[in-house]
What does this fold into?
Amino acid sequence: MLTAPAPAARLPDPYRNESKVLGALLTPLGGLDWREAVRIARPWVQAVRDKPAPFWAMESLLREYPISSAEGLALMRLAEALLRVPDAETAIALTADQLGKAEFDAGSGGPHKMLASLLKRLGAQTVVAATVRAIQLLGRQFVLGRSIAEAMGEASAARKHQPALRFSYDMLGEGARTEADAQRYLASYLNAIHAIAGNRTAAAPEAADGISIKLSALFSRYEDAQRERVFAELLPRVWQLIEPAARANINLAIDAEESDRLELSLDVFEALAARIAHDFPQWRGFGLAVQAYQTRALEVVDEVARSARRHGLRFMVRLVKGAYWDGEIKRAQEQGLAGYPVFTHKHHTDISYLACARALVGNSDVIYPQFATHNAGTIAAILQMGRSNDAKFELQRLHGMGEGIYREVMKGSGVPVRVYAPVGEHRDLLAYLVRRLLENGANSSFVHQLADEHVDVDALLASPLTPAAAPGMPSPLALYGSGRANSKGVDLAVIAERELLRMAVERTRVESIRVASADEVSATMARLHEGAPAWNATPLAQRTAVLRRAADALEARLPEFCGLLVKEAHKTLGDCVAEVREAVDFCRYYADQAEQRLAPQTLPGPTGESNELHLHGRGVFVCISPWNFPLAIFAGQVVAALVAGNTVAAKPAEQTPAVAQRMVALLHDAGVPRDALALLHGPGETVGAALVADARTAGVCFTGSTAVAKIINRTLAAKDGAIVPLIAETGGINAMIVDSTALPEQVVDAVVQSAFRSAGQRCSALRLLCVHESVADGVIEMIRGALKELQVGDPALLATDVGPLIDKEAFEGIASHVARLRREAVLIGEARAPAGANNVVAPIAFEIARIAELKQEIFGPVLHVVRWGGDVGAVIAQINALGYGLTLGIQTRIDSRALRLAHAARIGNVYVNRNMIGAVVGVQPFGGEGLSGTGPKAGGPHYLYRFCAEQTLTINTAAAGGNVALLAGFTAPVAGT
It folds into this structure.
């Protein structure tokens, strides 16, 4: 039986202090003689430089076209995209876009002239065909074969020259997005295992060829949040692969994944090991990869060794340096984590690698170490370790890389070498190839420096064993430099952190908030009006200090507010964390902005005169916020108005007053006077209307529907007295344009997040997907499959992707729209809703015929898909014609096309090759135009000005007898000169 172990933290905190981690890693390396490693490695390096690799080898390519150059970047971008483009027109546009940036021939008179000449002389299609062929040839250098049979044939040919070579076949492809993807990868792995088993010649799995499998390819939801499904659905699939591999006595390794899946991967590995110990106790071919760039790598090695001893097995462990460093860094920064799960200096990864190597060699009774590296110094150090322990191990290299170094290593070391060999169609190699180019082409990489003869051999082989005094980059919480702190987040993959949220949700009770009467509205407005002069006179430094105290308090109470958001607003845990963080960011950002922009400014002028510009509050600002972001938008409106010197009448959405009340109480505790901020709860038709119409209202800040914004605008315009400003952020019919250069997997990830996260109840959510006709069938099929994988239900559960709509009224409106689409459009696919759930609309997608069919915003998890062809500029024109202008997504690898579309779009926020939601305060200022709002953008540098009135103070300083300062500095000319 395959049984799931209970979730438990097997490893230490992934965000530990890097210096402390390194201290523990260096201790076991005290006996390593790096000078001896240099002595061993120097002849290898010199031999490679004396006899360079052929042109297509990685080292030569990097020497000719380093990725830091325009030529190298163009080559990488073309390799990533061109082979998957089915239509000639787009292929020509992509080739022209990328080659036009690079000067591959300095004597050609410039890149654009060279390209224009080529296109004219040879014809565009001929140039593209030649480029495609060149990329296919490039791909052949890094992919052993397009099928397992072809790859095995190439392996046999290679063994004629190097009989000791072993191979581990890696079936190329992205992680699965659908069940169909997973089944296709499963079949591919099974086919390969049977082929390898049928060709097996070695008796022991250590000496046999084998296969590497990726768990995320076998199950589309391979993530900690879906733990129950992982063990129910993924484990049996992996066992289908293990069983024939074990019977054939070949080796099967589980590839590494990102750090947030590490604990889950170890649990999966442990469950499989327990079954292997029962069914195949003599098999020694099961293993996994360990990434040395992770700060917990050494603990992973120790855990695997304990598991082997516990089950009486011997595992194969492939030690790699790691392939997703930039992604790990970005994730930690975006989520505001306490630190990085990876080392921030490359040579710190080298230290970790050597420490893990020492541990693997020291556990060689239960582990067969496999050292994957192209670094000559690292290889030499490993040979030292192995000889001192008399351990059996192997070295590994990637197919198409490091051949020169290993040519020299294999001459005299006697250590077996295995080639990690990608297998797949050329179109599947794109992401893999670019990742390899990025890894090995980075300026700090050994492969790059090996190809650079300007790098001295001593510098190339310098000891990595001296830790840097400081991290290689600021903490994720210091992302914004010396200014405001990044808001602190929660890693839901860490058991201890998500347990705090679970407990908070469990103990949360939503308090009832009293509806304000008409008399109370009037009295409150009077009190706020009277309090306005005193609050406006409060020094700016004191007002900004209040906001910063509020930010710190809110950050400290994140679990409490998350619990309230789950219970009152029906938000999922991930959305709750993001919303609290956004509210914290608003407080800190507007405090900073106020200090920079609202302080008095001295202006130039003639002598004898001073001129100063002063900004001050307008009076009482009415802030009306929505239920979809009842904390973040509520807080953003209120603190912006307050820091500008206004008093605030805050009216939250009827559905979510408890969240707002809790935030108001927090602001009062932070130092906002009670006669400067008051909450007034009640229906928009009564309380909201009364606030807007009140004669004491000096400004209105509103987020909500376009229809209500127009009503507010008319009310303000009809009032006697001063012209009252309105800041309105409303909805949108937000579109995403996908052309045939886009990577379908990335597109579907962005679509699912943008259209269905938060049950589609975001004003920025994707409503209209415009896909090029040449790739539409494939993208639509992938969306259909991805919809089936979404988990719909209770937002308090970690596994839930999509919760209910806010209330019955919203449910009935979306349900009615879906019913109409079922009659008039073509159903693409839908998720499965749990039986008996209240107000739940399962995510659903329809294909419609024309962009113009979508006439209004649909505020729920409903996606409309339309195909396009011909001029993409016409698509933007049709989107602009809808009248909304909030968010736009563009998915293309043609950089000039992305910029052209963005400039043509009358849209506030444009996102290229990513999702369209989750604008970050101060990073992506948010707001639209047309039917989508008035501006200025929330979370941007112009926002606070709209809450202010301006006064220019001019003083004639020379009024009493002249400009004394000027006269005092005047010197009369000397007589006779």
